[in-house]
Amino acid sequence: MSMARGNNTSGNLWLAKELWELGAVQFGDFNVGRTLHSPVYANLRLLIRKPRVMSKIARMMKEETETLLSMLHPQVSPFSFVAGVPFGGLHLATAFSLTCNVPMIYLHPTRDGKTVIEGLSEERDAGTTVLIIDDLITGGTSIVETAQQLREAGLIVKDAIVLLDRRQGGRERLKAHNIHLIPMLDMETMLNYLMSNGKISEEWYRRSLDYLQNPQRAND
Fold first, then answer.
1. Going edge to edge, which strands form the sheet with 104-109?
2. pTM over 0.85
3. Long-range CB contacts (within 8 A, 24+) of 35-40
4. Is 9 or 33 the better-scoring residue by pLDDT?
5. 176/35 Cα distance (integer angstroms)
């Protein structure tokens, strides 16, 4: 399996290929959440249609965390829980949890406006370190909000894994909240793969890169 060693996202081009063939990466004019007029859209929830790919992704994330933990200066903190960010990160966190045999928790908004952390015993689990998993990061709001609620419950959050980093300020925002980002793939690498393999035109490639480098961005 091709792997990102020390966070080399260019090593995971197999994932770019799988996402393209699944139809999870599209080009046009998209308004999704806080993202306005983006020429490129990634719908990673489509991955649930491919159990084989989900299993391979979970193994990839497992190998990546093991590699980062084994370094002389570890690039990820040891963790006892994994937390999926609703909703896009839940399927990835579930697959990772099953592959690694690591307990999973997640935030569950209730009808009265409160949020329950499913799978957590606050008295018994206080001080436990949690690894956050999400499918996509743009500006980082969803991960930061998840981390804040986990921390308020007495848990420790130091790292977050995402499948795809749009590279629109998310890493910097997480760093400001003392969260280290571990991306498996980034959008620029994805675009380079699609362009070099004749999947998209140079126009869409340029438009997408220009948009991603523009300061107008979403916060998700």
1. 115-118, 104-109, 81-84, 129-137, 156-165, 180-186
2. yes
3. 35/138, 35/217, 35/218, 35/220, 36/216, 36/218, 37/211, 38/211, 39/204, 39/207, 39/208, 39/211, 40/187, 40/191, 40/204, 40/208, 40/211, 40/212
4. 33
5. 22
Element (H, E) at 57: helix 51-70
What are the structural domains of the chain? 9-212 (3.40.50.2020)
- pLDDT per position as a tens digit, 198-217: 999 999 999 999 999 884 55
pLDDT one-digit tens code per residue, 141-198: 999 999 999 999 999 999 999 999 999 999 999 999 999 999 999 999 999 999 999 9
Tokens of 99: 């592959």
